[in-house]
Amino acid sequence: MSDFTAADRWIADRRGELTDLLFELIAAPTENPPGRERRAADRLAGFFDRHGIPWETFEAEPDRTNLVACVGAGRRALLLPAHLDVVPAGEGWDTPPWQPVLRDGRVYGRGAKDNKGPAAACALAAACAHRCFRLKGRLLVAGVADEERGSALGLEYLLREKKLQADFAVVPDTSGNMKKIFIAEKGLVFVEIVSHGRQAHGSRPELGCNAIWNLVELLSRIRAAAIPHVPHPLLTPPSHNLGMISGGSAPNLVPARAAAVMDFRILPGHTPEDLLDWLRGLVRAAEREHPGARFELHPQALQAPIEIPEEHDLVRVIGDAAAEVVGQRPTLHGSAGSTVAKQLLAHGIIAVGFNAGDEGMDHMANESVDLQELLDYARIVVRIAVRLLGRE
């Protein structure tokens, strides 16, 4: 008989309790903006109270609540940071997004997959660990605010103010049906590019300097250039996206200002500052070739790429636990997107992404999650906690 047989049975017997908690979380609308994560945090607090698990809340702003529950004692800590905010519901739903529905073993509603389903599963895992084991370390379950808008009021705040400290973290905010462990992420650089020219009458463009045309020339140069990088086995090449552009006020005016915002994704081995230096070189070349053109670069977000060694104990323990529960060892992957793993690593917490749920489900209409997957995810999390933290 496995050491986890009783724990597995305990979790299986609480399928209804997991469903109820997830329904409560979805029915507490926490669209960000404005967030108001307190609505969902109160539901989590009620669950932890019922299981005798202590918790605390922290707020950078009123109603932008972060809840942290703790099971066990000791110096070593494993963190499970799930976020309580969700994106707006949008259009195209077959059922009301804030009225959860259970159909054919799946729960439907905004946040079912991203990220309230995993939050409920992590809470259930913590309750199981509390009832079935005596951990030598601390299992921390955090329901955090503001992830969908950058985490300034959520995990960034908790880490900066030292409200939260841990050794390891499993970020339950990826996809892959527990068959993927994300050990690398591309870096993120958002840059506003401002083009300055000289205004003139539209009938005499030679008297001015057209900021829009100059910007178009620079953007074309950026698009044609190759971002410096070292190829990575788990990540696609670096990329850029032109996401916003603006300029001009009338068709008969030569515009004196135009601006664009670009999203760059870079690979390990290069830093955001490396990317900015590369951009500055392109700007200088464009200014030399177009007399009168002048550009400014305004970084809006700078996140370095991250990577965890595949032989790290955290990766091995997750792989072993998943193989036991779902019968398949997860494969290692990299992500072009960003999770809070970046902020965690910046504060010395070893973090990887690992989660239940289907690819392509986040932010979609008719968002849903398989309830059995959440139960299996809770079983895996219990194994990870026991093996990383130890037990009496």
What would you say this structure looks like, in words?
By secondary structure, this protein is α+β, with helices and mostly antiparallel strands. It has two domains: 265 residues, Zn peptidases (Aminopeptidase, 3-Layer(aba) Sandwich), CATH 3.40.630.10; 117 residues, 2-Layer Sandwich (Alpha-Beta Plaits). The protein is 33% helix and 26% strand. A six-stranded mixed beta sheet has the order 1-2-6-3-7-17. A four-stranded antiparallel beta sheet has the order 11-13-9-14. Strand 4 and strand 5 form a beta hairpin. Helix 1 runs antiparallel to helix 10. It is elongated and about 80 Å long. It starts with a helix and ends with a helix. The model has no long low-confidence stretch (mean pLDDT 97).
Output the keywords.
6-stranded mixed β-sheet, Aminopeptidase, 18 strands, Alpha-Beta Plaits, 392 residues, single chain
* Beta-strand segment tally: 18
What is the global morphology? elongated
Count of distinct structural domains:
2
**Order of strands in the sheet with the most strands?**
1-2-6-3-7-17
Assess the beta-strand content as a share of residues: 25-35%
Mean pLDDT: 97
> What structural class results from the helix and strand content?
alpha+beta
Low-pLDDT regions:
none
Rg from alpha-carbon coordinates: 24 Å
Instruction: Tell me the CATH architecture of the largest domain.
Output: 3-Layer(aba) Sandwich
Broad CATH class of the largest domain: Alpha Beta
- Give, in order, the helices and strands: HHHEEEEEHEHEEEEHEEEHEEHEHEEH
End-to-end gap: 19 Å
